[in-house]
Amino acid sequence: MSKQTAVTSVKPVTSLDIRHSKGDRKLTMLTAYDYSSATLVDECDIDMILVGDSLGMVMLGRDDTISVTMDEMVHHTKAVVRGTKRSLVIADMPFMSYEISVEDALRNAARLFQEGGARAVKLEGGHSVVPQVTALVRSGIPVVGHIGLTPQRVASLGGFKVQGKTAEGANTLLEEAKALEAAGVFCIVLEAIPVPIAARITQELSIPTIGIGAGAECDGQVLVFHDLLGLFDRFVPKFVKQYANLRETAASAISDYKREVEEGSFPAKEHSFAMPEHEKEKFEK
Ligand code: KIV
Protein backbone atom coordinates (compact mmCIF):
# COMPACT_ATOMS: atom_id res chain seq x y z
CA MET A 1 0.00 0.00 0.00
CA SER A 2 1.27 3.46 -0.90
CA LYS A 3 2.47 5.59 1.98
CA GLN A 4 0.66 8.54 0.44
CA THR A 5 -2.25 9.63 2.56
CA ALA A 6 -5.54 10.29 0.83
CA VAL A 7 -6.13 13.99 0.29
CA THR A 8 -9.73 14.73 1.14
CA SER A 9 -10.78 18.03 -0.30
CA VAL A 10 -13.16 19.99 1.84
CA LYS A 11 -15.23 22.62 0.09
CA PRO A 12 -15.66 25.58 2.42
CA VAL A 13 -19.19 26.94 2.84
CA THR A 14 -19.51 30.46 1.39
CA SER A 15 -21.95 33.29 2.01
CA LEU A 16 -23.36 32.67 -1.47
CA ASP A 17 -24.04 29.00 -0.59
CA ILE A 18 -26.00 30.22 2.42
CA ARG A 19 -27.93 32.86 0.49
CA HIS A 20 -28.88 30.38 -2.25
CA SER A 21 -29.91 27.57 0.09
CA LYS A 22 -33.18 29.24 1.07
CA GLY A 23 -36.02 26.76 0.74
CA ASP A 24 -33.69 23.82 -0.03
CA ARG A 25 -32.80 22.71 3.49
CA LYS A 26 -32.61 23.96 7.06
CA LEU A 27 -29.40 25.79 7.94
CA THR A 28 -27.35 25.35 11.12
CA MET A 29 -25.26 27.92 12.96
CA LEU A 30 -23.49 27.47 16.29
CA THR A 31 -21.13 29.71 18.20
CA ALA A 32 -17.51 28.79 18.93
CA TYR A 33 -14.82 30.89 20.55
CA ASP A 34 -11.63 28.84 20.46
CA TYR A 35 -9.68 26.28 18.44
CA SER A 36 -10.96 23.11 20.13
CA SER A 37 -14.63 24.00 20.04
CA ALA A 38 -14.28 25.16 16.41
CA THR A 39 -12.79 21.80 15.33
CA LEU A 40 -15.71 20.03 16.98
CA VAL A 41 -18.39 22.20 15.39
CA ASP A 42 -16.67 22.10 11.99
CA GLU A 43 -16.32 18.30 12.06
CA CYS A 44 -20.06 18.04 12.76
CA ASP A 45 -20.74 19.85 9.46
CA ILE A 46 -22.49 22.83 11.03
CA ASP A 47 -22.94 25.33 8.15
CA MET A 48 -21.87 28.49 9.99
CA ILE A 49 -19.69 29.14 13.05
CA LEU A 50 -20.46 32.41 14.78
CA VAL A 51 -17.69 33.92 16.88
CA GLY A 52 -20.37 35.66 18.92
CA ASP A 53 -19.77 38.53 21.30
CA SER A 54 -21.63 36.25 23.73
CA LEU A 55 -18.03 35.19 24.46
CA GLY A 56 -18.02 38.13 26.89
CA MET A 57 -20.50 36.20 29.02
CA VAL A 58 -19.79 32.50 28.50
CA MET A 59 -15.98 32.71 28.13
CA LEU A 60 -15.09 35.82 30.12
CA GLY A 61 -17.76 35.76 32.83
CA ARG A 62 -19.14 39.26 32.26
CA ASP A 63 -22.80 40.20 32.82
CA ASP A 64 -23.47 41.22 29.21
CA THR A 65 -21.79 41.69 25.82
CA ILE A 66 -21.32 45.46 26.00
CA SER A 67 -17.70 45.54 27.17
CA VAL A 68 -16.39 43.12 24.52
CA THR A 69 -13.61 44.81 22.51
CA MET A 70 -12.36 44.56 18.94
CA ASP A 71 -9.05 43.10 20.18
CA GLU A 72 -10.91 40.34 22.03
CA MET A 73 -13.02 39.57 18.95
CA VAL A 74 -9.94 39.40 16.70
CA HIS A 75 -8.11 37.15 19.20
CA HIS A 76 -10.98 34.64 19.42
CA THR A 77 -11.73 34.78 15.69
CA LYS A 78 -8.13 33.81 14.86
CA ALA A 79 -8.37 30.75 17.13
CA VAL A 80 -11.69 29.67 15.61
CA VAL A 81 -10.41 30.09 12.04
CA ARG A 82 -7.39 27.86 12.88
CA GLY A 83 -9.82 25.10 13.89
CA THR A 84 -12.16 25.40 10.91
CA LYS A 85 -11.93 23.74 7.51
CA ARG A 86 -15.47 23.80 6.15
CA SER A 87 -17.91 25.95 8.12
CA LEU A 88 -18.36 29.61 7.24
CA VAL A 89 -16.78 31.65 10.06
CA ILE A 90 -18.75 34.79 10.94
CA ALA A 91 -17.37 37.26 13.50
CA ASP A 92 -19.58 39.54 15.57
CA MET A 93 -18.82 43.25 15.43
CA PRO A 94 -18.80 44.34 19.09
CA PHE A 95 -20.69 47.25 20.63
CA MET A 96 -19.61 50.66 19.28
CA SER A 97 -17.31 49.17 16.64
CA TYR A 98 -19.76 50.16 13.86
CA GLU A 99 -22.34 52.61 15.27
CA ILE A 100 -20.26 55.81 15.26
CA SER A 101 -19.52 55.97 11.53
CA VAL A 102 -19.36 54.01 8.31
CA GLU A 103 -15.56 54.49 8.36
CA ASP A 104 -15.36 52.83 11.78
CA ALA A 105 -17.49 49.95 10.55
CA LEU A 106 -15.24 49.44 7.51
CA ARG A 107 -12.00 49.65 9.53
CA ASN A 108 -13.20 47.26 12.23
CA ALA A 109 -14.80 44.75 9.86
CA ALA A 110 -11.56 44.76 7.87
CA ARG A 111 -9.69 43.75 11.04
CA LEU A 112 -12.01 40.78 11.62
CA PHE A 113 -11.60 39.83 7.97
CA GLN A 114 -7.85 40.41 7.48
CA GLU A 115 -6.33 39.81 10.94
CA GLY A 116 -8.99 37.44 12.26
CA GLY A 117 -9.61 35.50 9.05
CA ALA A 118 -13.43 35.56 9.31
CA ARG A 119 -15.32 35.31 6.05
CA ALA A 120 -18.33 37.39 7.14
CA VAL A 121 -19.31 39.74 9.95
CA LYS A 122 -22.55 40.17 11.90
CA LEU A 123 -23.87 43.40 13.32
CA GLU A 124 -26.96 44.19 15.35
CA GLY A 125 -29.67 46.68 14.43
CA GLY A 126 -32.20 47.73 11.79
CA HIS A 127 -32.54 50.97 9.83
CA SER A 128 -29.75 52.70 11.78
CA VAL A 129 -27.10 50.30 10.43
CA VAL A 130 -28.22 50.25 6.79
CA PRO A 131 -25.46 52.70 5.67
CA GLN A 132 -22.83 50.51 7.37
CA VAL A 133 -24.19 47.30 5.83
CA THR A 134 -24.30 48.91 2.37
CA ALA A 135 -20.68 50.08 2.63
CA LEU A 136 -19.40 46.74 3.95
CA VAL A 137 -21.16 44.74 1.25
CA ARG A 138 -19.85 47.13 -1.44
CA SER A 139 -16.33 46.65 -0.17
CA GLY A 140 -16.63 42.86 -0.42
CA ILE A 141 -17.35 41.90 3.18
CA PRO A 142 -20.41 39.63 3.51
CA VAL A 143 -22.73 40.75 6.32
CA VAL A 144 -25.26 38.95 8.54
CA GLY A 145 -28.04 41.10 10.07
CA HIS A 146 -29.43 40.66 13.59
CA ILE A 147 -32.77 42.06 14.78
CA GLY A 148 -35.29 41.42 17.56
CA LEU A 149 -33.54 41.06 20.90
CA THR A 150 -30.20 42.71 20.19
CA PRO A 151 -28.09 42.08 23.33
CA GLN A 152 -25.77 45.05 22.69
CA ARG A 153 -28.82 47.29 23.28
CA VAL A 154 -29.89 45.48 26.44
CA ALA A 155 -29.67 48.70 28.48
CA SER A 156 -32.22 50.50 26.30
CA LEU A 157 -34.40 47.38 25.78
CA GLY A 158 -34.78 47.08 29.57
CA GLY A 159 -33.27 43.59 29.79
CA PHE A 160 -33.09 40.35 27.80
CA LYS A 161 -36.76 40.46 26.74
CA VAL A 162 -38.88 39.09 23.88
CA GLN A 163 -39.31 41.81 21.20
CA GLY A 164 -42.15 42.70 18.80
CA LYS A 165 -45.09 41.56 20.92
CA THR A 166 -47.37 44.33 19.59
CA ALA A 167 -48.60 44.69 16.00
CA GLU A 168 -46.63 47.94 15.76
CA GLY A 169 -43.46 46.27 17.03
CA ALA A 170 -44.00 43.38 14.62
CA ASN A 171 -44.37 45.77 11.66
CA THR A 172 -41.17 47.57 12.66
CA LEU A 173 -39.29 44.26 12.70
CA LEU A 174 -40.65 43.36 9.27
CA GLU A 175 -39.60 46.75 7.87
CA GLU A 176 -36.13 46.42 9.42
CA ALA A 177 -35.68 42.95 7.95
CA LYS A 178 -36.63 44.23 4.49
CA ALA A 179 -34.29 47.22 4.80
CA LEU A 180 -31.38 44.97 5.76
CA GLU A 181 -32.13 42.62 2.88
CA ALA A 182 -32.16 45.58 0.47
CA ALA A 183 -28.83 46.75 1.93
CA GLY A 184 -27.30 43.37 1.04
CA VAL A 185 -27.13 41.10 4.10
CA PHE A 186 -26.89 37.44 3.02
CA CYS A 187 -28.89 36.14 6.00
CA ILE A 188 -30.45 37.57 9.10
CA VAL A 189 -30.60 36.42 12.73
CA LEU A 190 -34.00 36.81 14.40
CA GLU A 191 -33.63 36.69 18.18
CA ALA A 192 -36.42 36.28 20.74
CA ILE A 193 -39.45 37.27 18.69
CA PRO A 194 -42.89 35.63 18.51
CA VAL A 195 -43.32 32.78 16.04
CA PRO A 196 -45.86 34.52 13.71
CA ILE A 197 -43.53 37.47 13.09
CA ALA A 198 -40.52 35.25 12.38
CA ALA A 199 -42.69 33.16 10.03
CA ARG A 200 -43.89 36.26 8.17
CA ILE A 201 -40.36 37.70 7.84
CA THR A 202 -39.15 34.31 6.61
CA GLN A 203 -41.91 34.22 3.96
CA GLU A 204 -41.34 37.77 2.77
CA LEU A 205 -37.53 37.72 2.47
CA SER A 206 -35.57 36.00 -0.26
CA ILE A 207 -32.57 35.53 2.06
CA PRO A 208 -32.48 32.92 4.86
CA THR A 209 -33.60 33.78 8.39
CA ILE A 210 -31.71 32.17 11.27
CA GLY A 211 -33.75 31.95 14.45
CA ILE A 212 -32.84 31.88 18.11
CA GLY A 213 -36.01 31.96 20.14
CA ALA A 214 -37.96 32.70 16.97
CA GLY A 215 -39.66 29.35 16.29
CA ALA A 216 -39.31 26.53 13.80
CA GLU A 217 -40.40 28.35 10.65
CA CYS A 218 -37.11 30.18 10.25
CA ASP A 219 -34.80 28.91 7.51
CA GLY A 220 -32.21 27.89 10.10
CA GLN A 221 -31.34 27.96 13.79
CA VAL A 222 -28.47 29.22 15.91
CA LEU A 223 -27.52 28.37 19.50
CA VAL A 224 -24.67 29.27 21.81
CA PHE A 225 -22.17 26.37 22.13
CA HIS A 226 -22.15 26.48 25.95
CA ASP A 227 -25.97 26.49 26.11
CA LEU A 228 -26.39 23.52 23.76
CA LEU A 229 -23.86 21.44 25.71
CA GLY A 230 -24.98 22.48 29.19
CA LEU A 231 -21.70 24.20 30.03
CA PHE A 232 -23.10 27.54 31.18
CA ASP A 233 -25.28 27.45 34.26
CA ARG A 234 -25.73 31.14 35.18
CA PHE A 235 -29.04 31.25 33.35
CA VAL A 236 -30.75 29.18 30.66
CA PRO A 237 -33.08 31.15 28.37
CA LYS A 238 -36.46 29.56 27.50
CA PHE A 239 -35.40 29.11 23.86
CA VAL A 240 -32.36 26.98 24.73
CA LYS A 241 -32.42 23.21 24.43
CA GLN A 242 -29.59 21.58 26.35
CA TYR A 243 -28.60 18.54 24.30
CA ALA A 244 -26.11 17.42 26.96
CA ASN A 245 -25.03 18.24 30.48
CA LEU A 246 -21.28 18.46 29.95
CA ARG A 247 -20.87 20.51 33.13
CA GLU A 248 -21.98 17.50 35.15
CA THR A 249 -19.79 15.11 33.11
CA ALA A 250 -16.78 17.43 33.45
CA ALA A 251 -17.31 17.94 37.18
CA SER A 252 -17.40 14.19 37.75
CA ALA A 253 -14.16 13.73 35.69
CA ILE A 254 -12.39 16.51 37.65
CA SER A 255 -13.50 15.00 40.98
CA ASP A 256 -12.21 11.56 39.87
CA TYR A 257 -8.84 13.15 39.00
CA LYS A 258 -8.63 14.87 42.42
CA ARG A 259 -9.51 11.64 44.28
CA GLU A 260 -6.98 9.53 42.31
CA VAL A 261 -4.15 12.03 42.84
CA GLU A 262 -4.92 12.22 46.54
CA GLU A 263 -5.07 8.44 46.98
CA GLY A 264 -1.97 7.90 44.76
CA SER A 265 -3.59 5.85 41.98
CA PHE A 266 -2.83 8.48 39.32
CA PRO A 267 -0.44 8.53 37.51
CA ALA A 268 -0.33 4.74 36.98
CA LYS A 269 2.48 2.78 35.25
CA GLU A 270 0.95 3.40 31.80
CA HIS A 271 1.14 7.18 32.30
CA SER A 272 4.79 7.14 33.44
CA PHE A 273 8.20 6.75 31.74
CA ALA A 274 10.65 3.97 32.60
CA MET A 275 14.47 4.13 32.40
CA PRO A 276 16.76 1.42 30.91
CA GLU A 277 17.71 -0.85 33.82
CA HIS A 278 21.52 -0.40 33.45
CA GLU A 279 21.18 3.39 33.44
CA LYS A 280 18.95 3.21 36.47
CA GLU A 281 21.55 1.11 38.30
CA LYS A 282 24.32 3.60 37.44
CA PHE A 283 22.09 6.46 38.57
CA GLU A 284 21.24 4.79 41.86
CA LYS A 285 24.89 4.09 42.76
O1 KIV B 1 -23.26 36.58 20.28
C1 KIV B 1 -24.00 35.63 20.00
O2 KIV B 1 -23.80 34.49 20.43
C2 KIV B 1 -25.16 35.89 19.13
C3 KIV B 1 -26.14 34.79 18.93
C4 KIV B 1 -26.98 34.65 20.13
C5 KIV B 1 -26.95 34.97 17.71
O3 KIV B 1 -25.27 36.96 18.61
Automatic annotation (TrEMBL):
Cofactor details (free text): Binds 1 Mg(2+) ion per subunit.
Entry EC no(s): 2.1.2.11
Pathway entry: Cofactor biosynthesis; (R)-pantothenate biosynthesis; (R)-pantoate from 3-methyl-2-oxobutanoate: step 1/2
A single GO molecular function term of this UniProt record: 3-methyl-2-oxobutanoate hydroxymethyltransferase activity
Domain of life from the UniProt record: Bacteria
Active-site residues per Swiss-Prot or TrEMBL entry: 191 (proton acceptor)
InterPro entries associated with the record: Pantoate_hydroxy_MeTrfase, Pyrv/PenolPyrv_kinase-like_dom, Pyrv_kinase-like_dom_sf
Residues the record lists as binding Mg(2+): 53, 92, 124
Major location (coarse): cytoplasm
Reaction(s) catalysed (UniProt annotation): (6R)-5,10-methylene-5,6,7,8-tetrahydrofolate + 3-methyl-2-oxobutanoate + H2O = 2-dehydropantoate + (6S)-5,6,7,8-tetrahydrofolate
EC main group: transferase
Keywords attached to this entry: Cytoplasm, Magnesium, Metal-binding, Pantothenate biosynthesis, Transferase
Region (Disordered): 266-285
Subcellular location: Cytoplasm
Binding site for 3-methyl-2-oxobutanoate: 53-54, 92, 122
Cofactor: Mg(2+)
Gene3D superfamilies listed in its UniProt record: Phosphoenolpyruvate-binding domains
Family per record: Belongs to the PanB family.
Free-text function comment from the UniProt entry: Catalyzes the reversible reaction in which hydroxymethyl group from 5,10-methylenetetrahydrofolate is transferred onto alpha-ketoisovalerate to form ketopantoate.
Subunit text: Homodecamer; pentamer of dimers.
UniProt-recorded name of the protein: 3-methyl-2-oxobutanoate hydroxymethyltransferase
Gene: panB
